[in-house]
Amino acid sequence: MSGGARAELLLSGGPIWCGKREGFAEAVAVGGGRILAAGSISEVDGAIDSATRRLNLAGRLAVPGLVEAHMHLLPYGLGLAQVNLRPDDGVRTLDELLRRVAAAAARKPPGTWILGRGYDQGVLDIGRHPTADELDRAAPHHPVVIKRTCGHMLVANSAALKLASITASTPDSDGGSIGREGGRLTGLLQERSMRLVLDRVPPPDETAMVDAIGAACRTLAAFGFTAATDMNVGATAGLAEIDAYRRAERDGTLSLRLWQVLAGNPEGIADAAWDVGLRPMSGGPLLRWGGVKVFADGSAGGLTAAFFEPYLEEAGGGRGLLCFPTETMHALLAHDHRRGWQLAIHAIGDAAIEQVLSGMEAANTQEHPVAGRRHRIEHCGFVTAEQRRRMRTCGIIPVPQPVFIHEFGDLYLANLGRRRAEASYPMRAWIDDGADPAASSDAPVSTVDPFVNLHAMLTRQTHRGTLLGPDQRITLAEALHACTRAGAYTQFAEAERGTLAPGLRADIAVIDRDLFSCEPAEILAAKVDVTLRDGAVLFDRHGELSSAAAA
Q1: What Cα–Cα distance (Å) separates residue 440 from each residue in 68, 197, 332, 527?
Q2: Rounded Cα–Cα distance for residues 412 and 405 (Å)
């Protein structure tokens, strides 16, 4: 405690996990938006007076505010108003998927776009993607686009394909593909070919975007998040997204701390944002612009992640898709590296990781060194031991989604075989290597629920109970670290947040049970009761901090 500051809030009465290195405290005192003291009751007592409010944890666990290290905040917020087609929301049959599309169409005038997100053909009873013809039956008078859960492919109905001027003779885009069977369009578009349709969807206006940002922030706060990395900004509505975020910050709609990663060129807005004056590390305490994202490949579940070794023949074979030739990718990385942006590059398969890693290595010059830049490889799911070593040498951070094991692990098994599936998203190997992987969800690709991510890191179990790579399991303290301080580090913010050390910002989540005394299966049922950012309430499930009992 410094300067004799007085505590505005005291947390005690349950375990308080302050960080992997800091361990546990009996009590934490908060004042002026900061942690004043953390330790035993006697160590914190000097900060308390009669005006200090008290939050009795009653055996519950308090942890640092969670950091969502990789998600798509605006699409997530907009998706809350779209057709939910996720398996965990009950969409496991084609009939249910079509029923939801038809219900949405019934609520909208003919000609209005119907957008849905989250289906997984590996879970659907038909074991394949829906088709344009099937979507036509559900919504014959509306253009329809539904995205697979990974976001790397979509199915469009005939009306949407017509608006995009796509016919059976339309050539595939470079780094993309258009589905055809028997000379007819199936409606399936993958990777860069998706833009043919998505560019026809009317973008949301500024008010809709600000509302979506607010909705996403409120949902995340209810899960204990106080900060997030927002990937691919500009991919939905171009430069208008920057204005929407700034407005959300000005009017108080933005309640989380955001590390913004721009959609890189050639399709993105990074160059246009630079031309209008946006620079790396610009912004304020809630909204900071830091990185640029480029896609190197697709998804392993969708057979578009790029591998050296082919997918299993029974899954469809092939080696996936590289979005760009290596020369082009390396030029894009060098361009943004020289401008000072953090590189946050999507690469899932080992061939894509190699393309990106070699490009980051090639960008390393005496004038523009890579050291200290905290470049990231997003997902980094199927990485080799040699690639891990080279990443560590250059200080390149892996930003994986362990929740993918839970949601897509069985599909990895079917597409790639047990050896590669078990070695995917290797949290234990990274930690043992001395790396500091930052866990995340990639929402809306996967659930933003952090307890699913924690469970996956502890158990390596899929949603069907399949065990994949038990040697890659990590401890709860390591998993919480991956969701807190490791995420803050990727945002150059570890000196401000990510642990509950004195002097740091009072970003705190109170969980409804002590996870350290739970069986792993119980963690899936956990909820957050209170979320604080700078000591102020973002979420209070039971109104504890507004009740007389909290005073």
Answers
A1: 5, 29, 25, 17
A2: 8
- Residues 6 or more apart whose CB falls under 8 angstroms from that of 14 comprise 57, 58, 59, 60, 61, 62, 514
Question: Domain 295-481 sits in which CATH superfamily?
Answer: Metal-dependent hydrolases (3.20.20.140)
d(CA 496, CA 177) in angstroms, rounded, equals 44
* 326 vs 371: CA distance, rounded Å: 22
- Tell me the C-alpha distance between 212 and 225, whole Å: 17
pLDDT at 317: 96
Q: Mean pLDDT by 10-residue block, N- to C-terminus, for the chain (551 residues)? A: 76 98 98 97 91 97 98 94 91 97 96 94 93 97 93 94 95 90 94 92 94 97 98 96 98 98 96 98 96 96 95 96 96 98 98 98 97 97 98 97 96 97 98 97 95 98 97 98 98 98 98 97 98 98 74 42
Read off φ and ψ for residue 188, nearest 5 degrees: -80, 125
Q: Hey, what CATH class is 73-198 in?
A: alpha beta
pTM exceeding 0.70: yes
In sequence order, what are the beta bridge partners of 83? Answer: 116
For residue 156, what are the β-bridge partners?
145
Q: What one-letter code names the amino acid at 343?
A: L
- Give, in words, the CATH class of 9-65+500-550: mainly beta
